[in-house]
Amino acid sequence: MRGRSLIGLGILALALAAAPFVVPNSYYLDIIIRMCINAVIVLSLNLLVGYAGQISLGHAGFVGLGAYASAVLPSHFGWHPLLALAAGAVGTGLLALLVARPILKLKGHYLAMATLGLGIIINIVIRNESEWTGGPDGMPVPSMELFGYELMRDTQWYWVVAVLLLLSVWGALNLIDSPFGRALRGLHGSEIASQVVGVDVPRYKTAVFVLSAVAASIMGSVLAHYVGFVTPEVANFFHSIELVTMVVVGGMASVFGSVLGAVLLTALPQALATFEGWEIVVFGAILMLCMIFLPRGLVPTLAARLRVGD
């Protein structure tokens, strides 16, 4: 791990440690918890899209699989929440492994359409299997138990998701500096060149796709237990687009860009709520300005300008 990455990780750790003591009330703590959950999901998606160059428009489907595993298995079969979370992650990983080879043979907008189709299929199954999932109305999720204690208060959930975010950032920083991470960046640059130097392209593409799906499933389970209720909206197309937008705005192939993009786009709709019906217009205008003046995303663009300034 490089020096700048260590500094960034230290700043993030300090910010996470201070956050619950400076927020004025539980409303803001709830937003920060959702920021942390989104940041881990976006980070997993950035490994696939930003580093490996594989477009995915169905990532919310994997979030939904994890969320509904944590709702269905404890409610209908009496599974322990942690066991249901693990089962959801394993099941999502197996599904991703099954579809990865045929889907990842595609490129560009063909790949985008294939992943979009996968996400839509997952969402339709969740909506139609109303006997198990509650259909469009959703279903309640039992509380999470850790070491015999139920996680009920926002402060308890905050420390859980803060630790998960810190571990995810630390793991991603080490991953991208490893031979695996260098192979992913090579895939993004040129798959043919990567094959020439001995990179097993299908294997690496499959591995990052499965890793990204499993991480999304785990955080979907965390989100479901935190909220206490889950609906099919967690797996819909618009949620997938929101996640991709967080990647792009924060910065493609940037670990800390993933965190910043998730933070900004989780908080922005709340901040724009005072515009009374115009918030979507203002939100879209802000995104357009970001893409015009910060085309590589916030963190990579600002980092490049600071280096030029030096």
From TrEMBL:
Signal peptide from the UniProt entry: none
InterPro entries: ABC_transp_permease (IPR001851), LivM-like (IPR043428)
Keywords of this entry: Cell membrane, Membrane, Transmembrane, Transmembrane helix
CDD domains assigned: TM_PBP1_LivM_like
Top-level division of the source organism's lineage: Bacteria
UniProt keyword Magnesium present: no
Chain coiled-coil ranges: none
Localisation: Cell membrane
Membrane topology according to the record: Multi-pass membrane protein
Annotated transmembrane regions: 79-98, 110-126, 157-176, 207-227, 247-268, 280-299
Name of protein: Branched-chain amino acid ABC transporter permease
Lineage, uppermost ranks: Bacteria, Pseudomonadati, Pseudomonadota, Betaproteobacteria, Burkholderiales
